[in-house]
TrEMBL record:
InterPro entries: P-loop_NTPase (IPR027417), Small_GTP-bd (IPR005225), Small_GTPase (IPR001806)
GO CC annotation: early endosome; early phagosome membrane; phagocytic cup; trans-Golgi network membrane
The organism of origin for this protein: Gallus gallus
Protein name: RAB31, member RAS onco family
Predominant cellular place of this UniProt entry's protein: membrane
Keyword Translocase listed: no
Biological processes per GO annotation: cellular response to insulin stimulus; Golgi to plasma membrane protein transport; phagosome maturation; positive regulation of phagocytosis, engulfment; receptor internalization; regulated exocytosis
Gene designation: RAB31
Gene Ontology MF, one: GDP binding
Top-level division of the source organism's lineage: Eukaryota
Protein family membership: Belongs to the small GTPase superfamily. Rab family.
Keywords of this entry: Cytoplasmic vesicle, Endosome, GTP-binding, Lipoprotein, Membrane, Nucleotide-binding, Prenylation
Membrane topology: Lipid-anchor
Length: 213
């Protein structure tokens, strides 16, 4: 019987940026044009294979309305990762994202993995947030970054695969040299590797120290 590793993940961000749609696309492979705003929080799970384990995502999708902000700590407390979502067509949502990052750094779990998702990339013709800005900010805080479209199923799987890789591997990175660490946690690699790559990232070793995961 395969071992099951549970990964608690919370989604944070402004109302209307597509948090619920991202979760629904990931868990149910479904997109609802008329999805209702989340009240408080909603909970969904998805189990995916990863090497010799099963990884069960415990996903808390939090409401973006300001009146529910005070409830957020209940959901990000104890989380392995947080996905902070912004809408690439709304600059204000990117400013809100930075406020969430500040709160997580001050009050969230010490080693929480942060992933930045620029949703609605299918609307790039009315973009307000350049991808360059998001990448530079993500690099400055050590976060995964990817642009997604819940509507068109773009980079949704990759987002959660990147989270899975980072959470599984982060405890072993201390024994890796700085170059291999940088290769592993770079946003492009973290967002692009498939789930089967977890035990095989760079062969599962630091290329320069032969320190196995």
């Amino acid at each position: 019987m395969m071992a099951i590793r549970e990964l608690k993940v919370c989604l944070l961000g402004d109302t209307g940026v597509g948090k619920s749609s991202i979760v629904c696309r990931f868990v149910q492979d479904h997109f609802d044009h008329n999805i209702s705003p989340t009240i408080g929080a909603s909970f969904m799970t998805k189990t995916v294979p990863c090497g010799n384990e099963l990884h069960k995502f415990l996903i808390w999708d939090t409401a973006g309305q300001e009146r529910f902000h005070s409830l957020a700590p209940m959901y990000y407390r104890g989380s392995a990762a947080a996905v902070i979502v912004y809408d690439i067509t709304k600059q204000d949502s990117f400013h809100t994202l930075k406020k969430w990052v500040k709160e997580l750094k001050e009050h969230g779990p010490e080693n929480i993995v942060m992933a930045i998702a620029g949703n609605k990339c299918d609307l790039s013709d009315i973009r307000e947030v350049p991808m360059k800005d998001a990448k530079e900010y993500a690099e400055s805080i050590g976060a995964i970054v990817v642009e997604t479209s819940a509507k068109n199923a773009v980079n949704i799987e990759e987002l959660f695969q990147g989270i899975m890789i980072r959470t599984v591997c982060s405890s072993s990175l201390a024994s890796w040299c700085w170059l291999c660490r940088r290769l592993l946690v770079s946003s492009e690699l973290a967002a692009g590797l498939g789930h089967a790559a977890v035990p095989a990232v760079l062969g599962g070793v630091c290329l320069h120290r032969d320190s196995r995961l």
